[in-house]
Design goal:
Order of helices and strands: HEEHHEHHH
Helix content: 40-55%
CATH topology: Zincin-like
Distance between the termini: 22 Å
CATH class: Alpha Beta
Number of strands: 3
Radius of gyration: 15 Å
Bound molecules: zinc ion
Number of helices: 6
Strand content: 5-15%
Strand order of the largest sheet: 1-3-2
CATH superfamily: Metalloproteases ("zincins"), catalytic domain
Length: 154
Amino acid sequence: MNTCQNTNLQNLLYEIWETYFPDVPRKNLVLVKYGKFSKQRLGSIKWVKDFKGIKSFYKKFKDEHEVQDDKRITLIILTRYFTNPKVPDFVIKTTLAHELAHYSHGFNSPLQKKYKFPHQGKIIDRELRKRGLGKELELSEKWLKENWRMLVSS
Ligand SMILES: [Zn+2]
């Protein structure tokens, strides 16, 4: 897994969606790509405002976009540090699941907003545990605590 190709990342996102979020409808095109080398922000989710920077990538998903009723595009961005082969799959997986949880709560997605704030209480961690990702979440937090600082400073 853990490869720096955006297309593989996209497949991983769909895999996670189908496995852990099967009840969450895909109302629009949701793309995922690596962004900058960000140390603090491992992942984020936003609306695509323009096609700058995603043009060639988008072309691959144009057909998929055309069948969607809602033409807005959601973009998930992962830190480029995740292209480092030392980063375990469960870290990438839980980060993607974290962003999908935001989507399912209606943040930067066409779905109905369920909460006032995206990180209100422990809604994301609770969501991931409820969906069977508790073990991965623990592993991921532990790994990040023990390895992240070293990895981003090397
Ligand atoms: Zn978040």
